[in-house]
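Case study.
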Amino acid sequence: MLRYLTPILLALLASSAAYAAAVTLASNNVDQLGRGEGNVVHYYVRVLSASVTVNNNAFNNQITGGSVTVASTVSGTYTVTITVSTSAGTRTYTTTVSLSPTPTTISFTITPLSYTDPGVTITVRADPV
Amino acid sequence: MRRLAAPLLIFLVILTPLVAYSVYMPVTAVDPLGKPAMTYRLGKNNVISDRNEVRSVSLTTSGTTVTDATVQIFVRNAGWYDVTVVLRDSNGNIISTGGPPLGCVYLGSGLRTVYVPMSPHVSIDSVYTVEASASRLISSCII
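After joint prediction, the assembly is written out as follows.
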């Protein structure tokens, strides 16, 4: 009995080892989760600065625009959406720019928005085109 | 020769479908889909003796590590200020904080710039939210 089982067990062992080796070697070449989906691109948006410009220095002033410095770990064309929010409302600015790991400064203008306490929230989102 | 042929055949029969239908899924493929956005929160106070507002925040990096921040504040009430920069991760947890090197800083009226070293130094890719605020102190924090 053992005489017949031994070669089978050896074959199973060898094939398992070969399969493991194949998976390990090929694991660096995978670029997608399934054939029905597009490429899975992992990018990290890096916003290195954000500033607002105001219409005057009085306390009840308004935000009229600003600038953000943005980079992405994956170079390409992105739709960048800048959302500016205070307790008085929200403004959105959208543009299409090329991003790369080297930071790019994007200046934006918005319809005046009261700069109220407790402050302003600026969200920068970049989606690949 | 026949003794060798049998295990070799079994080996090939098992190996072929395994290789053909194997799905390679490295760790990067099941990682979160990166970080498409970041948020900055610039503070503004509305207290009679403290009506300042943050106008800008800039992070300084060494490679991909955030080491310092520079905060621009419009000061309407000159005095001693505590300036705070907070970095948060994707779950809103604080991962790094910073303040003036001496704990507080005297700021005259007008647009002022404050240098803020961050601690600990964290990767910019783990930062999802940057918060900057300034609050006027009754007196200097420096003894």
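Observations recorded in class. Residues 45-128 of chain A form a domain with the Immunoglobulin-like fold (CATH 2.60.40.10). The first helix of chain A runs from residue 2 to 26. We will return to this complex in the next lecture.
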